[in-house]
Specification:
Largest sheet: 7 strands, mixed
Number of helices: 8
Helix content: 25-40%
Strand order of the largest sheet: 3-2-1-4-5-11-10
Shape: globular
Distance between the termini: 45 Å
Structural class: alpha/beta
Number of strands: 11
Order of helices and strands: HHEHEHHEEHEHEEEEHEE
Strand content: 25-35%
Amino acid sequence: MFYRYYDAIFAGKDYRGEIQRALQRSGLRGGGLRILEIGSGTGNHTVACALLGHEVVGVESDPRMVAVAEHKQDALPPELARRIRYFRGRVEDLPDEGFQLALALFNVVNYLGTLAELQSFLAAVARRLRPGAPFLFDAWNGVAALLDPPREKHTAVETATHTVRVGVTGRLEPMALRATLHYSLEATEKATGQTETGTYELAQTVWPAKVIADAAGGAGLDVLDVHPLNDSDAPERAATERDWKICFVCRRRS
């Protein structure tokens, strides 16, 4: 159920705006870039890249997410669909190299459960970039999560056929640097009033920014900037311990 309503649950997320801001931060200009997108999910960031004229390889380890993304790709205009390719698996297993830009958006690094996995992930991304190419990724700020743990949240989203109600509760384990998000879903079909319910859990590691930066440095990536994600009021300021979502701007060493 979570996968069927995933795009409805996150319908308020500005995927295209996030890609535009990432490209601006990367310093790269123009179209026709060869982009590696890790954690491509249901393909929303991927399509946003393609709409801006770039070729994208989306890497996703969850086959159910890839199935949704490929179904959406089939419905795209052919000239747009041709700019997208999905790879089912880990970035460590991707044979492609020489990308001009890498992106990992929507908390991808937080799904890595151990320091060894984080180091392996970052090293694999670095190896697939051209020397000097940028890598941008966002993350939960582990320090902010400890200072201000996740709170209960309830939303309702209208689709063409359903009203989807979503409740999210968070459980934080400070000593383990782990957060578990529990989703309670209720989808009511508008035509019949029939209701379906379900639950889903996401476990994430709330990495401190220094741990991520140290791992990136060890992987051959220079961290150029860590700033608040989507902070339009002060886009140039550095992230602090109070910023829940942060973005790393890195570059592969030459």
